[in-house]
């Protein structure tokens, strides 16, 4: 038998080489390790011991094919000592003597389990990335498509409201209510678009010089009706803070923080404060709601998250996420803390001069 | 207001709604479903519009292609264009295309009124 061994390809160190007799019984184990088996446990056994179901008939067929074709190779499931399956590459070569008579078989087994696991992980990662990309593209398309009918709807409602204002103030108020719902729908769609923008790296800021206090007042005025409906009196203290920022995005961030304060601190006052502090512009929104659980402090800034059950409070759970993206895009930070005896304070800090301006 | 407005918009409902709004503002307004059709209107009409209200995403000839061709025309290259889109990126496109102004969908009637009034009070360049 030893006559024909050198014709086998040199095995890698993790290949196990067995010599099988004509009957498939393992006669020797000459190198390598395989799946926790020890030589004394397998020598003298039929090589079907490695097969998941110990299928002797299938093993006989394998040997017959190796003899007929001069080589049998496959990748498939094999069995560890503890019975668990692993993925293996198996090559069986017939061994002949000088006269060409079949004397037995060489069986080279390689444990591919780790390679297969890594390959599967790689495939799963690629699939997950593709799924995320598909979702973001889908979000972008859906948002855009939703805006088209919304545009026609809002225009018609605006015409109706205007016509009715002179003739039927009550109906005009109803048109106004419908318009407000349309605006909310638009805002929701816009948040979805923002998520897709952030995820695909298309979230850009248009910086211009302005006064943060003025932006805060604009938002405060715009949300005065929402504050009234929530039963919140908003106290604004703001000193002029000249800053380079994206006005629309900053309005959006402040709107999100204020809307949150109205949502969770309904019926109680809300304080809005803007000031300059050393090298930072500071904007604080303080509510008197239930506050935030310590465990939720970081989570509330993540996508689709909220500090409380979605059954009790509406929204997509995107406001603080988008707010943080906006603030961080400006080189700033946004943090949350609880304020005894009750309520939460969100603090935005923006560098008065951006890093690149300092050089 | 007396402005003449050419509305280039592929969505029938939005186009009709914009025409309604503009009529209610006292403007004369005609619509075109895409840039190509708008070009034909500009080429064949005797009176040029005061301004063009241009959607960006359209089949056949989109807003960008329309604006680029319109801008090169000696006859009507001077007509101001207001671009609008459902994407906030409309700001950047407006800058690229040297648009007179931009609007974001859904379009706010008050903003449109202010724009129409501002663009009407400016005497057209001859």
Write the layout of secondary structure elements.
The complex is a heterodimer of chains A (359) and B (126).
Chain A: E1 15-20, E2 26-31, H1 39-42, H2 56-69, E3 72-79, E4 85-96, E5 102-111, H3 113-167, H4 169-199, E6 208-211, H5 212-222, H6 224-230, E7 234-238, E8 242-245, H7 247-264, E9 270-277, E10 280-286, H8 319-329, E11 333-338, E12 344-351, H9 355-358
Chain B: E1 4-8, H1 12-24, E2 28-32, H2 35-44, E3 51-55, H3 63-72, E4 81-85, H4 90-96, E5 101-104, H5 109-121
Parallel strand pairs in B: 1-2, 1-3, 3-4, 4-5
Helix pairs in contact in B: 2-3
Oligomer: heterodimer
Major sheet of chain B: order of its strands?
2-1-3-4-5
**Structure summary, number of beta strands of chain B:** 5
Query: Using only CA atoms, what is the Rg of chain A?
Result: 35 Å
Largest interface: A-B, 24 and 21 residues
Shape of chain A: elongated
In terms of DSSP E residues, the strand content of chain A is: 15-25%
The largest sheet of chain A, given as strand count, sense and whether it forms a barrel, is:
5 strands, antiparallel
Termini separation of chain B comes to 21 Å
N→C terminal distance of chain A:
79 Å
Global shape of chain B: globular
Mean pLDDT of chain B: 86
Count of strand segments of chain A: 12
- Secondary-structure element string of chain A: EEHHEEEHHEHHEEHEEHEEH
Q: What proportion of the residues of chain B form beta strands (DSSP E)?
A: 15-25%
Tell me about the largest β-sheet of chain B: 5 strands, parallel
Helix content of chain A: 40-55%
Q: Which class do the helix and strand fractions of chain A yield?
A: alpha+beta
Number of helices of chain A: 9
H/E topology pattern of chain B: EHEHEHEHEH
């Amino acid at each position: 038998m030893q006559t024909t061994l050198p014709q086998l390809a040199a095995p890698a160190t993790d290949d196990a080489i067995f010599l099988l007799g004509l009957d498939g019984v393992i006669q020797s184990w000459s190198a390598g390790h395989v799946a926790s088996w020890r030589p004394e446990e397998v020598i003298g056994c039929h090589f079907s011991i490695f097969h998941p179901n110990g299928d002797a008939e299938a093993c006989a067929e394998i040997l017959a094919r190796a003899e007929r074709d001069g080589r049998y190779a496959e990748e498939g499931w094999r069995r560890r000592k503890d019975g668990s399956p692993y993925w293996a590459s198996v090559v069986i070569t017939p061994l002949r003597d000088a006269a060409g008579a079949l004397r037995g078989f060489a069986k080279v087994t390689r444990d591919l389990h780790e390679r297969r696991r890594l390959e599967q992980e790689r495939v799963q990662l690629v699939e997950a990335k593709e799924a995320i990309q598909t979702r973001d593209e889908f979000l972008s398309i859906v948002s855009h498509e939703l805006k088209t009918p919304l545009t026609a709807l809002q225009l018609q409602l605006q015409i109706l409201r205007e016509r009715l204002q002179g003739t039927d103030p009550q109906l005009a108020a109803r048109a106004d209510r419908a318009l407000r719902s349309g605006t909310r729908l638009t805002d929701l769609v816009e948040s979805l678009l923002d998520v897709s923008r952030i995820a695909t790296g298309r979230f850009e800021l248009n910086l211009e010089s302005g006064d943060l206090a003025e932006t805060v007042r604009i938002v405060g005025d715009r949300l005065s009706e929402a504050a009234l409906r929530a039963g919140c009196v908003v106290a604004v203290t703001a000193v002029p803070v000249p800053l380079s920022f994206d006005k629309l995005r900053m309005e959006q961030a402040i709107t999100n923080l204020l809307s949150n304060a109205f949502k969770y601190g309904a019926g109680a006052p809300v304080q809005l404060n803007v000031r300059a502090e050393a090298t930072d512009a500071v904007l604080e929104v303080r509510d008197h709601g239930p506050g935030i659980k310590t465990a939720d402090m970081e989570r509330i800034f993540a996508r689709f998250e909220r500090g409380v059950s979605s059954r009790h409070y509406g929204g997509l759970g995107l406001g603080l996420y988008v707010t943080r993206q906006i603030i961080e895009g400006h080189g700033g930070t946004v943090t949350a803390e609880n304020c005894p005896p009750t309520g939460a304070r969100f603090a935005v800090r923006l560098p008065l001069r951006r890093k690149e301006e300092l050089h | 207001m007396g402005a003449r407005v050419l509305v280039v918009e592929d969505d029938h409902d939005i186009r009709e709604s914009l025409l309604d709004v503009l009529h209610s503002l006292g403007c004369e307004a005609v619509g075109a479903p895409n840039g190509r059709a708008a070009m034909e209107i500009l080429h064949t009409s005797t009176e040029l519009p005061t301004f063009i209200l241009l959607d960006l995403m359209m089949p056949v000839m989109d807003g960008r292609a329309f604006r680029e061709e319109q801008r090169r025309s000696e006859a009507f290259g001077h007509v101001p264009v207001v671009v609008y889109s459902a994407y906030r990126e409309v700001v950047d496109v407006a800058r690229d295309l040297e648009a007179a102004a931009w609007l974001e969908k859904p379009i706010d009637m008050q903003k449109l009124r202010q724009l129409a009034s501002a663009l009407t009070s400016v005497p057209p360049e001859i």
